[in-house]
Design goal:
single chain
């Protein structure tokens, strides 16, 4: 439910031109979410993997929307982050261990977050805090619903708690304060 509450308004804001998702970030998040989901299932997350599946559906949809309605000012550093994130998929392909796959996927996810964090720091009006705030709540509930606790089932939610909390805070800091900090 939290995935719907957070993502549907975000998607509507994309159509309204209020939000401009960064295609690089959402592309990598789509791939990573699929890896994490299958890793969680393989390591016994049970119903705790359902939030990851829901997230994967919305992540793919937002990526597809970002191709047309997303942020267009792609910087060289964004491309470097994309290359690093995609290069991290190679070790995942070479291993069949779900735990290693999830650790690599989460590392990729964190790198993929950088273009969106950079964009949001410079242009906070291109994002909305609702999605990221709902993601914080969703990952708390996902952690509480895991049927098995191990690195493969929990690492992604822990990392997403940190990054989504940072993003929510960044978006809720008044713009005047941000400008004086730059």
């Amino acid at each position: 439910m939290l995935a719907i509450v957070g993502n549907v308004p975000y998607i509507l804001d994309i159509f309204r031109g209020r939000v401009q998702p960064h295609a690089y970030t959402w592309f990598v998040w789509t791939v990573v979410t699929a890896i994490v989901f299958f890793g969680q299932v393989a390591k016994g997350a049970g119903v705790g993997a359902i939030p990851t599946a829901a997230s994967g559906f919305f992540t793919l949809l937002i990526f597809l929307l970002s191709l047309r309605n997303g942020f267009k000012n792609i910087a060289r550093i964004d491309t470097i982050f994309l290359i690093f994130a995609l290069a991290g998929i190679v070790p995942w392909i070479l291993t069949s261990d779900p735990t290693i796959s999830v650790v690599i996927a989460v590392s990729i996810d964190l790198i993929a977050f950088m273009p969106t964090l950079r964009k949001t720091w410079r242009q906070p009006s291109t994002e909305t805090p609702l999605l990221y705030g709902m993601n914080v709540l969703r990952h708390i509930l996902a952690l509480l619903s895991m049927q098995t606790y191990n690195i493969a089932t929990t690492l992604h939610s822990i990392a997403m708690l940190v990054t989504n909390s940072a993003m929510t805070g960044l978006l809720l800091i008044p713009r005047k304060q941000q400008e004086s900090d730059e």
